[in-house]
From TrEMBL:
The lineage of its organism: Bacteria, Pseudomonadati, Pseudomonadota, Gammaproteobacteria, Lysobacterales. Residues 84-136 form the HTH cro/C1-type domain. PROSITE patterns: HTH_CROC1. InterPro entries: Antitox_HigA, Cro/C1-type_HTH. This is Type II toxin-antitoxin system HigA family antitoxin. It comes from the Bacteria.
């Protein structure tokens, strides 16, 4: 027989995590920025690699940021995908060489029009390539 799930220890752990990270449901720009800061720190630590101990945390944050961006900041997929494809060709980049976006599969989905670049992606790509963010619109 299945044991009932003990919610109290999970809630305690969640409350502790949320108190020190300020990460949870992204309801506004302040929550969004806290999630972006932690995501950027995790990228700096190498958490994009699937073998990294914090990879699941990184992926969870990525999903939260992506969901918020889709609700509030979704960009035109065809235009931004064309710009991204052009930049990759000009710089001889492969799908796995864009940490500003994430995993190779995410880059592939963006190029295929199945996913949109987020404001966070565009900000980082613009900084990397020295272009105006408006180029993606």
């Amino acid at each position: 027989m299945n044991q009932p799930l003990a919610i109290a220890p999970i809630a305690d752990a969640w409350n502790h995590f949320h108190a020190i990270s300020h990460v949870g449901h992204i309801a506004d720009d302040q929550d969004y920025e806290a999630s972006i800061q932690l995501t950027d720190a995790l990228i700096s630590e190498g958490a994009m690699e699937e073998t990294h101990p914090q990879h699941l945390l990184f992926m969870t944050l990525n999903d939260l940021v992506y969901a918020y961006d889709q609700r509030h900041n979704a960009m035109s997929a065809p235009q931004s995908a064309q710009v991204l494809r052009f930049l990759m060709e000009q710089h001889g980049l492969k799908l796995a060489q864009l940490p500003e976006i994430g995993r190779q599969s995410e880059v592939s989905e963006i190029l295929a029009g199945q996913r949109s670049l987020t404001a966070h992606h565009i900000r980082n790509l613009s900084a990397r390539f020295g272009i105006n963010p408006n180029a993606f619109f």
